[in-house]
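Journal club prep — side note

Before the paper discussion, L.F. wants everyone to see what a predicted structure for a comparable chain looks like in token form. Sequence:
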Amino acid sequence: MGNSIFGIGLSALAAAQQGLLVAGHNVANAATPGYTRQTIVQSTNPAQATGTGFYGQGVRVDTVSRAYNQFLSNQLTQAKTESSQLDTYYAQMQQINNLLADPNGNLGLSPALQSLFNGAQDVATNPSDLSSRQSMLSSGEVLVRRFQSLDSRLNEIQDDVNAQIKNSVSLINTYAAQIGKLNETIAKSENAARGQPANDLRDQRDELVNQLNQEIRANVVVQNDGSYNIFIGDGQSLVVGTQVFQLAAVASPDDASRLEVAHVSGGNTAAIKESSLDGGRLGGMLQFRSESLDAVRNGLGRLAIGLAGTFNQQHQLGQDMQGNLGGDFFTVPSPAVAPSIKNTGNATIAADITGFNSLTASDYSLRYDGANYTLTRLDDGTAQTFATFPQTMDGVSLTLASGTMAAGDQFLIQPTRNGAGQIKVAIQDPSLIAAAAPIRTGAPLANTGTGLISTGVVNLPAPPDPNLRQPVTLTFTGTNTFDVSGTGTGNPAGVSFTPGGSISYNGWTVQITGQPKPGDTFTIEPNTNGVGDNRNALLLGALPGQNILAGGTANYQNAFGQIISQMGSKTRELEVTSAAQTNLVSQTQAYQQSESGVNLDEEAANLLRYQQAYQAASKVIQTANLMFDTLLSLGR
């Protein structure tokens, strides 16, 4: 009996001791990231059968378990990966929003735009004043530098995105290698312990999975042996048991300045579809780049190109102080066309902007399948298929400049990407500002009717000189007809007349109101010595009030305001959703910790309970020893 009581006491003593060890381990790791509370699992030893019943043989500790809830842990991991993506996107958007809003006005476009057209209006007020003209040129230079400064800052952000993509890919590879190593270590440890769970190692692995999800959304598949298989993107393997795969940040085959994420397996590197890489910091950076950074760069480029192109069109309709037709006031940036490095043909594609009003802020993809070409607008997937060049879409004309396309060849066309960075002022001499109109109209005092001729306007596109400025005479042969004489007109006779109707020849248009009489004449002739003429300067100054961009729906300020509004709205949306997701993470973590975390008050109670159990077990052993000594004394 004494020996039986000894065994029971010893088993109780061992169980209490192990309980103290586990409770102490919990207290020591209460602040350890990823640690899961552990408890001992006890059961009774098999009872001894006797004629008077079954007598217990004490207790045994079957295992040490961790309070791990896979459902809550998965919820917390997914909440954190969403939060990390939103926080990253929001932080990047704040840079864009602050850049465009620019409360100090150092980079803002709106004041510079207004200054340019104020300068045009000053020239209209004093067309012969060189200082007013120089001020207009200076305003143009300031505007160009604002565009270039914005583009330079956006390029810096693009470079920072590339750097962060590299860093994130490196961290993902590190975490994957550590998880693969832990898969191996856990398997060996648990085999050596006859299947007992290696709780601390499992906690370390789960914490690495949590950290991995801070970088990219990772799907974990638990195998029968307890090892983790981890997949990302469209199902690309990152960890399969002890086998670890790598990711790489590689230059895009279509745009060398842009890094994309590729999967490395068996010596082969294959790009992963960007839209499938969501979650975490990497997902946030990729989403920011594709949704917002590209959009603001292209939007500013469209504004720069639209401004330069439409301002040039009007400037070309005027006449400078030297009596020549106006040239380009701005240098209009050309579209960027990049062949894929995978192309096997030697074709060169040329792109030109033919419709500033039709430009979008999208990039385009051109593919050739061996028979037909497909041009796709990338922001919405709109595509058109054609068999031969030239081809025009959204104001951009494409031609096959040289070479031959091979099946599978692809080109990336970015009509507006270089707009803000490459816009320049094309003239330096203030006398070359075309403030005057190249034609003037007149009517002799000898006319007897009430007809009055307008000052005339030059039509778009800019007509070729010299026909524009060839003298033309309109001679009325009746109250409702007139003859036309002058080079380039064809000299028609008996042209029908409607009071106030448009009369157009040689690239100009005039109107005659009132009622001319037979024999009345009206002339359209070169504006010789028109230094004091301000008609084209007035038209230049009036451009900001015209909806000449975005399909006739926006003026210059509206177009810039739309960019600011879009970026501001997106920033505010991310601010709200990021804060909400942070709250969700806190709530989910509280639920998870309520089950899996260490409660120091509870552990203090456990320590006291196991201490008392230990003391009680010692008392059992002491009693057994006393009983044994008594039996020995009886035998003397």
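L.F.'s comment for the group: The chain has a mean pLDDT of 93. Keep this in mind when we get to the figures.
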